[in-house]
Amino acid sequence: MRTTSKTMTKTHNRDEKVILILDDHSARSRKISEYLQSAGYQVVPAADRKKALTLIRRQVFDLAVINDQHNGEDGFLLMDELRETQHGLPTIIVAGQGSIERAVEVMKHGACHYLVGPVDGPQLAGQIEQCLGLRQKEPVGRPKPSSPQPELAPSCARIIAHSDVMKDVLAKIGQVAVSDANVYIEGESGTGKELVARCLHGASRRKDGPFIAINCAAIPENLLESELLGYEKGAFTGADGRRDGLFAQAHGGTFFLDELAELPLSMQAKLLRILEEREFYPLGSNRKVTVDVRIIAASNRRLEQQMKEGRFREDLYYRVRVIPITLPPLRERKEDILPLAHYFLEQFSRDSGKSVQHIAPAAARKLMAADWPGNIRELENTIEYAVALADGDTITPELVSGSLSAENDTPPLRHAKADFEKDYLIQILERHRGIVSRAASEAGKHRADFYALLRKHNLSVNDFRTN
What we know:
The chain is of the alpha/beta class. It has helices at about 25-40, 50-60, 75-85, 100-110, 120-135, 165-175, 195-200, 220-230, 245-250, 265-275, 305-310, 315-320, 335-350, 360-370, 375-390, 395-430, 435-445, 445-455; strands spanning about 20, 40-45, 65, 70, 75, 90-95, 115, 185, 210-215, 230, 245, 255-260, 280, 290, 295-300, 325, 360, 395. The protein is elongated and about 90 Å long. One of its GO terms (biological process) is regulation of DNA-templated transcription.
C-alpha cells in the first residue's frame, strides 16, 4: 500500500472536510488515514460499528469509507445505520474481493463508489475528491426525519429527543403523565421547561382541561395574590369588578408555575395551603373556592440551595417536588443539536417565505462545537438570524459564525447594563428611603414595572426603609 504524498488538484477546501474511516484492519486504516491527512483531510477512524455509530451521533462527517465485510458485517447494513443518523452521507464501499453484480448492487443502494482489491491512499483520495465534488452543492447533515424517539401525545411533538438523555426524559414523561402527582421541572434557562409542562398536560387525563401558565418572576409581589386567587369588586383600589384568579381558571386542568423559586415567602405560605386543602378565598370575598388542579412547577435555580438560604419553604418544596424531572443543557445532548437546528430551519424558512433548506456541513460543525449557554433558545435565535440573512438555500458557516459572534459579544454588555441598572435602583431607593411611589416616579416607571425590576435584581424595599 503506497503512502507517499502525491500532488492533487484542490477543488474545494479540504480543511473543512471530515472523513470517517470504518475499518477493523488497524494497519491498513492507519496508512490510508496518514495519506488522507497529508492530502489535507481530517480523518476520524473507527475500529468497529459501535464506535462509528457513536461518532456519527456527535459529529458531522462529509463522507464515510466502509469496509464491505467489516467484522463480517454487510457494508449495506453499516451504510444504512450511518445514514439513519446523518441522512445523505456520501459513502465509499471498499472490498477485498468483489464482483460486477455486487458493484451494481452497491451503487444502486446509494454508494458513491465501490472499490475492489488493495486500495492505496492516492486511489482512495481521488475517489473521495470525485464524491465530494459531486456533493459540493448538496449539503449533508440533516438527520433522517424518521429517527426513532419515544411516541407520546401530539403536545409532545415539538420535543426533539435523539439523544439518550432526552429519550429518558420522554420515557419518564410517559410514565408520570397518567398520574395526578405534582411535578417539578429543573433546568437551565432555555432548556424547554414549559414545553415539557405542556407535553405532560397533553399526555394526561386532564388534556381536555385548561393549561394555565404563570411566570412567578414577571408579576410584582403586590399583584401576585390577586392574580393567583382573584378578587371581588371593591377588594382594593382599582378592583372595579369581580375577577377569577389563575387557580380558578385552571380548574380541571394543569397549572404551570414557572420560576417558582422567585415566589415571595408570603405567597409560598398561601400556595402551600392551597395545595394541602385544594381551596382558597379570593381577595375581598367570604366565598370559598374549591379547585381541582395538577401543579407543575419549574425553576432554573436549585430549590435545595434556596431552602438553605431561607428563601424557599421546606414544606412547600416537598409538596411541589413529588416527581422531579431534570432537563439537561443543550451542551450535554449534542445528538439533538442538528435535529433541533433543522426543525427551526423549516419553521423560520416557512414563516419568512424563504426557501432555505440546508445547513452546510461546515456550518453544522460550528453548531455542534458551540457551547450554547442559552441552550435551545439561543440555538433558535441563531437559526432565525441565519435564515433572515441567507441569500441562497443554504446556511453557510459564515452565517453561523456571525450569529454566534453576536451572541458571544452580548453577555458582557448585558451584564454591564444589569450592573448599572442595579446600582441605579439602589441609589434612588436610598435617596427615597424605600418609598416605592417616589422611587418609581423618579425612574419614570409604573409601580408594577418598578417592582418587577426590584425582583429581577433581588432587591427588597424593606432594606432601604428607616425605622
